[in-house]
Target: Putative serine/threonine-protein kinase
Amino acid sequence: MEPVIPESLLRRPELARQPVPLARRAEQARPVTPSWLIEPKDDRLVAGTMLAHTKQYRVEGCIGEGGMGWVYKAWDPVLERAVALKVMKPDVPESERERFRYEAVWGARFCHPSIARVYDLVGVPGQGISWFVMEFLPGRDLGTLMRRAKQRGTHMPLRMIADVFRQILSALQYSHDCRVVHRDVKPENMFVTRDPNTRFVTSKLLDFGVALDLSTAGTKVERHLVGDPRYIAPEQTEHGREVDHRADIYAAGMSLYEALTNRHPFEQLLGGPFHALLHAQRSQGFAPPSNYLPDELPATVVHGLDVVIAKATSKDPDDRFEDAKSMRDTMLEVLKS
Model:
């Protein structure tokens, strides 16, 4: 069958806005074959042309649910690949809807192997439904893997932890180079999966829904605390404090501590009053990870990890690693021994 494109898609925008006589509407409704399909010399679309198509996905089942929506595994029959559909619940507040949209926008803009890719964002007018299409990631988030290790009374393999944080810190360095601060770095937003083609284990940084664009930061006023209280930097716990990429380094350090030791730095405060945890992030110290690391680790590695964690989680941003790359390189140098 010869492909056709409606004439309405080929009209210039300024002509499309003019009223169309009734006598011509029936004629324009008929599909036509554009000239560039007939005449090889005229193969360019007119500038301003809007092309449209309908994309279909076959839903295979729900694979996850959060406060904002559901995640489904689906099949793309055109490109012959598995995808994930994240569908927002219709009763999500307006403020959270914006977070949902930004999660899709940043996922689509970024191009890094350790940041989950978003392919499309769809809104259904009048129905309050939005959803986006992203790469399908078989596997588990780091938070789930940590809980399983703790339940078994074992530690996650040090080699695996190093590989996960090597990739996550590389992803953070990329986003920071793009002048974007994640602001919600935590184990649940670090996903461990396998490349569908090579089967190599790889890690992905998820959920840029509350990310801060430093190029436009002065135009946005935060009304609420942003980030997970278990991992946020001291400067994120107070309104009006300046926040930059070093807040992500603090959160990465807190997450690394928990992955290494099977316990949160402020384990005793989890589940308690909210304000107590925020106060601890601002001014309370915690035991070094060496207190809880496996006995078989070499002393040089144990001491080195103490230094990495202490520097990453310093209360003063000026005392932390200057960037994610520095933290990554120092961590890998320690573990080499």
Notes: The first strand starts at residue 58 and ends at 65. Residues 1-17 have pLDDT under 50 and may be disordered.
